[in-house]
Amino acid sequence: MSVETNTDMEFAYGAGHIDPLKAVNPDLVYDAGEADYVKFLCGQGYSTKHLRLITGNYSTCSEAKHETVLNLKTVTNVGLAVSTYKAVTAVPSEISVKVKPRVLSFKSHGQKKTFTVTVCATVDEGVISGSLVWDDGIHRVRSPIVAFVSS
Questions:
Q1: If you ran DSSP here, which 8-state letter would residue 17 be given?
Q2: Is the pLDDT at 3 greater than 50, yes or no?
Q3: Which of 112, 115, 31 is CA-nearest to residue 77?
Q4: How many CB atoms sit inside 10 A of residue 70's CB?
């Protein structure tokens, strides 16, 4: 993806279209719960007032601004029982990404693995983006990484 031709960068990736043949066999599925969605909305700049309109509960967004973001993620293997995925990052020099562990090895279908992603970005203006891909040599499970200046 080119910054010159794709000014929306990661926000335009895929444009909402899916490949039905790939969707039948996703291989890895990210586990996501309410707390994950709340963190996402807070990261997008939602106020506590607007967050509560969506959640219908007393969720809050911290006012703290962080240059480094640590995320604990869990994926479930829905592909081949025995499989190994390696973390591949593609980010500009303004973004530092650390993934631990960098290799996820599964021994059974339905097995869960947890990993952490630490992102540190230097953004003067606008938006910068990249991606984390879990690659087993056949399948590529891609997650966008986006950093921007919050107003």
A1: -
A2: no
A3: 112
A4: 11
Length, in residues, of the chain: 151
Closest C-alpha to 75, from 107, 106, 29, 119: 29
* pLDDT tens per residue, range 92-145: 988 999 999 999 999 999 999 999 999 888 888 878 888 999 999 988 888 888
* pTM listed for this prediction: 0.76
What beta strand segments (E) does 7-126 contain? Answer: 28-30, 68-77, 83-90, 95-100, 103-106, 112-121
Write out the two tokens for 25: 């066999």
Q: Give the contacts of 133 (CB within 8 A, at least 6 positions apart).
A: 87, 88, 89, 90, 140, 141, 142, 143
What mean pLDDT is predicted for residues 52-58?
Answer: 90
Task: At 11, give phi and psi (nearest 5°).
Answer: -70, -20
Q: Is 140 helix (H, G, I), strand (E, B) or coil?
A: strand
In this structure, are residues 27 and 141 in contact, taking their beta carbons and an 8 Å threshold? yes
Q: What is the largest CA-CA distance in the chain?
A: 46
Can you tell me the mean pLDDT for 39-59? 86
pLDDT above 70: residue 33: yes
